[in-house]
Amino acid sequence: MDFINQVINGLSTGSMYALVAIGYTIVYGIGKMINFAHGEIIMASAYFAYVGMSFLHLPALVAVLLSIILTALLGVLTEKVAYKPLRGKGSLEVLITAIGVSYLLQNVFYMIFTSSGRTFPQIMPKGAINIGGLSITYITIITLIISFVATGILLFFINKTRLGKAMRAVSEDQGAAQLMGINVSTTISLAFAIGSGLGALAGVIYGAKFSIINPYIGQMLGIKAFIAAVLGGIGSIPGAMVGGLLMGVAESLTIAYISSDFSDAVVFGILILVLLIKPAGIFGSNVREKV
């Protein structure tokens, strides 16, 4: 039973990784770039919710919705100011800019809130449901529900709505999509807004799960979520979800049966194995480029 409990705990953490990984996937799929500042945007979302509840005394649901809106706007602002001028440039320029944006956001929140951890308000009920020998916390249940519902809504939006079809068209061929009357710039901004908004849910979940937030929580969270996106096949939304869950389970089992000191090593080991065995990821496919 202990093994199953650890798997369930891993699924809870993995669903948080999945939400962030989906943000990476959407931006990569539409804009053909990796937003390595995504982890810091998630960190910002946790602070937005924290300020809403602790300083503005908003109800938890209102504070979370405000955090999602502000985080989506931050994502769009980042795209407009930092990445849009680099369209058509090499990947190295984009990578350096993303690192710069990452450290900029870290330092802005450091100056405002200092490096001291802030206690995140309790927004999820404590306690657990006991089924036989299994103990499933309410936070785990709520986290899994939020993640699967958000992913389902996103898949419906991408596959069934007009804007979603426009995003798929831009993902396939930006030039052809533009000739068909699709505003590529607006579509890419929408991808950043959606990816950041989903990430805001992960930021709130992180705060609720670990209770303490600081300006550096986005670093490792962003890296692990990126590895999850690569594991599942970057560009694939279901792949990002599966990759995040697998990452969470692997991390939980490592902490339980080996040592917490090795959890990060296992995560990076998974990345190396994926790159060696199947670089395109579980759901990814190799794409040939004409030269």
From TrEMBL:
GO MF terms here are: L-isoleucine transmembrane transporter activity; L-leucine transmembrane transporter activity; L-phenylalanine transmembrane transporter activity; L-valine transmembrane transporter activity
Membrane protein topology class: Multi-pass membrane protein
User: Which UniProt keywords are listed?
Assistant: Amino-acid transport, Cell inner membrane, Cell membrane, Membrane, Transmembrane, Transmembrane helix, Transport
Transmembrane intervals? 16-35, 47-74, 94-113, 134-158, 188-208, 220-246, 266-287
Q: State the compartments where it is located.
A: Cell membrane
State where it is primarily located.
membrane
Q: Does the keyword S-adenosyl-L-methionine apply?
A: no
**GO CC term (a single one):** plasma membrane
Q: Which family does it belong to?
A: Belongs to the binding-protein-dependent transport system permease family. LivHM subfamily.
Q: Which PANTHER family match?
A: BRANCHED-CHAIN AMINO ACID TRANSPORT SYSTEM PERMEASE PROTEIN LIVH, HIGH-AFFINITY BRANCHED-CHAIN AMINO ACID TRANSPORT SYSTEM PERMEASE PROTEIN LIVH
Q: What is this protein called?
A: Amino acid/amide ABC transporter membrane protein 1, HAAT family (TC 3.A.1.4.-)
Q: Which organism is it from?
A: Sharpea azabuensis
